[in-house]
Design goal:
It comes from Lysinibacillus pakistanensis. This is Antibiotic biosynthesis monooxygenase. InterPro entries: ABM_dom (IPR007138), AI-2_Isomerase_LsrG (IPR050744), Dimeric_a/b-barrel (IPR011008). The chain contains three helices and four strands, in the order βαββααβ. The mean pLDDT is 95.
Amino acid sequence: MKEIIINAVLKAKSGKGEMLRAELLNLVEASRNEDGCIQYTLHESVENKDTFVFYERWKDEEALAFHINTEHYKYCGQQTESLLEKQEVHRLQIINP
């Protein structure tokens, strides 16, 4: 089973950055406590305080699927839907030459 890496870039609507930040921070601790979570890090852009980036590492596809179906993940999605201007999610795997 291959480790899955998620890079998610979220941009808040104008004036909604602080609210989005608070909701995303609520997601971090619960997600880090999931069995298949290797790393779950939230970043904030230095240039634009309304832009946030998650870097996540999951044990495998099953761990990521479990995460997406947790109550805390679904709740965060509901709370942030109206705050987001843009969201890009990239599913990645490490290339070992």
